[in-house]
Design brief:
Two copies of one chain form a homodimer. The N terminus of chain A is likely disordered. The first copy, chain A, is built from six helices and twelve strands. Chain A is 22% helix and 24% strand. The interface between A and B is medium-sized, with 35 and 35 residues.
């Protein structure tokens, strides 16, 4: 990747994206609402841009039309020559890269908050790409997560860090910085009022945090727990590729809880249990996520670690207000 | 409808159907399992036939390919002349009608148990078509529901009766008798072990009940609560047809609970509440079911009534055993 400009400048160009997966309705309906009533995304020093990331998939209430948009923001896809038979999501990723990027360039947006829902019992999770979990971008995102946690201490928030195979491929990677907000459980194609209102409040607080930063607020150092994704575990399957069992009732809904060696992870349809044969405790996430069946993922294993986040210094020059 | 033969004969031809909606995975995976291991569906006096009702929709994990199969078993669709551009589900309904019907004929199967899942918090529900809620077919189904309730009294079961507009159109209507087993909440495209094992146990108990009946067991009269569907309520919508709000958090997940006049039913995205403006208490069901967004249904209203079910007399002649 090219060298990124220093982040210690005000964030002026911020996008909130929803419908990156067209059947995750929290972001879909928040963005549709903001497109009609954009005032909610305005702050004195900037206005966030609402973007319906995958309108074709959203129109048919599916995750995607031809391929998963949130795996399509690689340089290979983004720089490929347009062809008539391109998958829809490749064309759409290139459009978004023009609007919000280009990826890795000085012209790219400062921050993308990408809104997602999961069928897994993951509560409120923030997902950061691991290649960005370095000073200085991660420092900013970690302070954002910390700020959100402090705003509503009664809720549990989890920070999840993952490393895409090869290069970054998610929508936030188009901008200079960004994270995914993942909320669940919510079925695909369903909008729950509780998820919707919590997601909306988190977006508002995110913009408040950026505003505070832009106006010269400093944030002190802290330690935080992070779940780092290790690898995935597929369902037990029959010879023809169908499920031979499903997530064990003792594992279902226990995202972010410790899974000990020897604990049951699958219940086979023949009645037998499959036990976790690893040699150390892991923390499963995205347990029984609907969209991952086709990706051969019953759950992801993660490791819990404590990260020391340095202070986020105050901007030295006060920003000018947006016109 | 033509006159049905007397039901007071042993039930020999029984089908258990799953995947009528291809993304409701409880029935899909039970049927796939039974196709490999059919012994579970055998009883001394009969063997139930497992059928994957909509294999094309199941293969792509969608409710349907061209149209809702479970609204396609009308005489109009079933008797229409085949054409190359027929919707897939019309062709498939005709195939199933050949295999399990023909609808309304002496040759039709005796009983179809059709397996469904819902994203709504409906627990375990039995759905009967209202045109069959007459002596003698309903008597049999009601006794079946009663038997299942008595097998596991710790669970709550609900009986739901609906009247299709015009003629019957569901898969069970192809047979001489039948019901839908509806279990939730389970997201589309997800198989939960708890739902799967409970559905499996209910199917086993259903076959046990038929076996008892076939062998000459009599069942006494009883009274039971039934929820009769009245009509549906759509979401509040914007001018372009998108949602303007969603199911109110005070209504979400409260299927089968009383909804009083003046209680909130929707939370608009502008923050306002929409109140129920009916003049009598109703009992909402299928609250926020994913598949019903496109049908303009946020929930169905039902009325609760008590039905007196007459005794189910013992068969007079003991049945011969199946070969």
């Amino acid at each position: 990747m090219c060298a990124l400009p220093t982040p210690w400048e005000p964030l002026r160009r911020v996008a909130v994206t929803g419908g990156t997966h067209g059947n995750e309705l929290g972001g879909v309906y928040l963005v549709r609402h903001w497109l009609q009533a954009p005032g909610e995304l305005q702050r004195p020093s900037f206005s966030a841009t609402p973007i319906l990331a995958n309108p074709a998939a959203t129109a048919v209430c599916r995750r995607y039309v031809d391929q998963d948009l949130n795996r399509t923001f690689t340089n290979t896809f983004l720089t490929s020559k347009a062809a008539p038979d391109d998958p829809y999501e490749v064309t759409r990723a290139q459009e978004l890269n023009q609007q919000l990027g280009p990826k890795g360039s000085d012209q790219a947006f400062d921050f993308i908050l990408d809104l997602h829902n999961t069928t897994a019992n993951m509560g409120t999770s923030f997902i950061l790409e691991a290649t960005r979990n370095l000073f200085p971008e991660a420092t900013f995102s970690m302070h954002l997560c910390r700020y959100l946690q402090l705003q509503s201490p009664e809720l549990t928030y989890s920070i999840l860090e993952y490393q895409a195979p090869g290069e970054t491929n998610g929508l936030p990677s188009v901008a200079k910085n960004g994270i995914c907000l993942e909320m669940g459980p919510q079925p695909q194609g369903v909008l729950r009022a509780d998820i919707f209102s919590r997601m909306r409040a988190l977006v508002a607080s995110t913009l408040d945090f950026i505003e505070l930063f832009n106006r010269g607020t400093a944030f002190p150092a802290f330690d935080v727990e992070v779940y780092r994704i290790l690898d995935s575990v597929d369902f037990p399957r029959t010879e023809d590729g169908h499920l031979a069992g499903t997530v064990h009732p003792q594992l279902q809904d226990r995202d972010f809880e410790p899974l000990l060696p020897g604990a049951p992870i699958f219940k086979l349809f023949n009645g037998k249990d499959v036990l976790y044969d690893g040699d150390s405790t892991v923390y499963p996430v995205f347990i029984n996520e609907a969209a991952y069946y086709e990706k051969s993922v019953a759950f992801l294993k993660s490791r819990k670690l404590t990260v020391s986040v340095p202070a986020l210094p105050a901007l030295t020059a006060a920003p000018t207000l947006a016109p």
